[in-house]
Please model this.
Amino acid sequence: MSDPVVTMEKIVNLCKRRGFVFQSSEIYGGLNSCYDYGPLGVELKRNVKEAWWRDTVTTRPDVVGVDCSILMHPRVWEASGHVASFSDPMVDCKLCKGRFRADHIDQLRCPKQPSKKPGECDGELTEPRSFNLMFKTHMGPVEDSGAAIYLRPETAQGIFVNFVNVVNSARMKPPFGIAQMGKSFRNEITPGNFLFRTREFEQMELEFFVPPGSDDGWYAYWQQRRMQWYTDYGIKADRLRLRAHASDELAHYAKGCADVEYQFPIGWQELEGIANRTDYDLKQHIEYSGKDLSFFDEQSKERFVPYVIEPSAGADRGTLAFLVDSYDEDGPDNDRRAVLRLHPALAPVKLAIFPLMKRDGLGEKAMEIADSLRAHFAVAYDQSGSIGRRYRRQDEIGTPLGVTVDYDTMKDGTVTLRDRDTMAQERVPIDSLYEIVRAKVAPPVNRAALRPPA
Ligand code: ATP
Model:
């Protein structure tokens, strides 16, 4: 059972009200399943991506990053198999004209009221047919087929086609990885559930290249590592699971695949896929480009095409999971508090500063403290409403620490520091704030072994 306190509706409302996420083009009636991140959402998502990049790239000696263009040579998508088979089965309802992803019928509702499962109303469904999910556009002013081009449906291919560039320029040798974060586009048949399934989204992908034969160990390693990342950043372990694909779910080239799943209010859903893609991708590009993408190991004097372990996560899905997971309510019925118990490293605002009163120099003093800490952390300053209300506003957006400046501050240079989760308050010197906040918002230390057990 999912947590009864948190519903998708509460999350959507909070996101709109507090400026995490808005419907795209809202003043024109919105564009279906497209969203804009507002002032707090952009910070939260940046922090999620930064946490991934830090864990996957900058704290590791064996992973480097790239940032490739969204538009790529059309042959890339022929080689990768996307032109031929990046499709989902689609059915149409002959009555309401709704279009549905055939393999998701159980989770879908038709647009007719009262809404039913597609096919359960009087409408007849067509036979499933294959619908390619790639967005096609044209490069340059001529709309002929020679100029047809795709918006990338995944970031991974930019990594594969740069394999040799990275090996040569960064002097990497397998086992090593190349990571990328960025926008991907899929013309999903039935997008929905807020940020969960959209047509434009961000991915965080790692392609980890290993000598054939060591792939099983690295596959197990990355599954464990990626699960650990989510719990390190606060996701509750009992709402997270790893689900290995059955053999009939596996892509024909994959040796293994497991999904990291999270228990959303809409049920258990994929956050990330981790696959052992064998040497399929590099071999495809060798064939289609005619270029040698194998690796020559100077030490062993062996030439091989590396196997690839791919952890592929969604930044928006991840952000939604962190929002859902951290949402909590406490206190008595007549004084309920909504709080986002976000990991402090992910919180969009780290510290809020409140003058008890605006007058008698308290406002100026509070602003002075805010300005001095703003060079280091995202700081909010709020002087309106009762202190209790101001605390609540910050709790609801996940700010881990609050500081109140009062008359004693003017006498002895101390402030009241309040903790979001425990609501405990203590008196601390202004001079100690930087160190306290720094320690509080530090990212978890990546203590993972850098290699799988032999
Ligand atoms: P699904 O089965 O949900 O369509 P998928 O298995 O096709 O997903 P992958 O191709 O493995 O997804 O993509 C890797 C990750 O990218 C997913 O785990 C998800 O987090 C994210 N992702 C994929 N499609 C979408 C989408 N339409 N909207 C938001 N995130 C997405």
